[in-house]
Amino acid sequence: MTTSQRYAALLRGINVGGHKKVPMAELRTLLTELGHGDARTYLQSGNAVFTSPRADPDALATGIADALRDRYGFEVGVLVRDHAYLQAVVDACPFPAADLEPKQLHVLYLSRTVTPADLSGLDPAAFHPEDFRPGDRAVYLHTPNGLGRSRLSDPLTRAIPKAAGPATSRNWNTVVRLAEMTAEE
């Protein structure tokens, strides 16, 4: 008997400003057509949870990205992460998440871990009180005035090397909810 692992697929840049439209019902159908089970979505911004017996998140991401390109005719960056990783991101948060509003805390998920040298061109003091901390294939971003007013978000995203992409960010509510959804039986 083959056991299935629960994963979250994080799609970058869909359904933003009317561009790269991927209806969530169609995303669930696409995941099912790819042979994944229990496909569910969260919000309209490209978060899906599914099960698969395959144990290679990178191969799963490539398969989903290829299927999206074939169906919709545009490229979508896709990252796939399992529950253990998503929970580790929650647990390792270097900021006091319980004391912050969810709109003040974000995680940029990446394909690989960035090094301090990768981000050495950013002077954190120049963006105070905003701040960032690298993590395991993620960067935590604290924006006291929200992401929409952030002076750090764009420079931080530009500083992340292409090899670490695709980068896709989620607010703290979504970070926590995806960890919860991938834990559900």
TrEMBL record:
InterPro entries: DUF1697. It holds the Pfam family DUF1697. It comes from the Bacteria. This is DUF1697 domain-containing protein. The lineage of its organism: Bacteria, Bacillati, Actinomycetota, Actinomycetes, Kitasatosporales.
